[in-house]
Amino acid sequence: MAADLATHHQFPLPAILEYPSSTPPELVTQGAEGRLYKSTYLLPSIPCALKHRPPKPWRHPVLDARLTRHRILSEARILAKCRREGVPVPAVYAADEGAGWLMMEWVGGGPVRAAVSEWLRRRRDAERAAGRTGDAVVEGSGEADADLVALLRRIAAAVGLLHKVGIVHGDLTTSNMMLRPWARGEGAPANGDCIGIQGDGLLDGDIVIIDFGLASQSSSEEDRAVDLYVLERAFASTHPRAEKLFTTVLESVYREAFKQAPVVLKKLEDVRMRGRKRSMIG
After folding, report:
1. Closest CA to 150 of 86, 188, 199, 183
2. I want to staple 18 with a disulfide (CB 3.0 to 4.6 A). Which of 2, 29, 216, 226 is the partner?
3. What is the pTM of this model?
4. Marked catalytic residue, from 135, 147, 171, 223
5. 200 is catalytic
């Protein structure tokens, strides 16, 4: 079985994925530090995500083993803490810090980045069909923007809750947020309200924050502000037409998330100023 799997995968699989399974593992993505596979957990009907940090040949073996162990355990502990506190993150199923892997709940749906980009594309096409340029800034004041505003509010609420429980993500982008489809007729959404929103369903779903490989436990206003700044700049570069709307909604919803939030937003102004100075200097 292991030989058969090896012939279908470009990289050596972690041992946990070489056991006989009714669902062959699928390489979803590869990053600088690890690879993400889709497989199953216990039953063929339960999909899971397995994050594997393979050995790095350019590092000393002892150092590499220590770093891998620390990062796997740190990510697992942070995810477990978030789940206990109600932050929308994947559940941890299993971990083996020695073998360098972490098995988590598979989050259905797609990344927020793709959904927002498609929504903006449709908006642009509709504006051009109506004889306009299609590059106007999205202000969020009209009924047509209700879905986007609701999504941005869910994003801000999720980030606010994350910071409230003392976790800083370290790489907040719309690529590291998933839109898990709502189960219609099975109760209210976990972190959003679809009642009264008339749209095509493109932006419907619960926000689930993923990829905590760079996350840390911190209650520092500076760390939280930098986290917000990273998200703000990532959103601006990916979805520039909705940049101002995002910043407005983020500050409005985040401000109510926890007691120290206004202080974090004040610190965010300082971080923005430093960012602008670096841009001017080059």
Report:
1. 199
2. 2
3. 0.89
4. 171
5. no
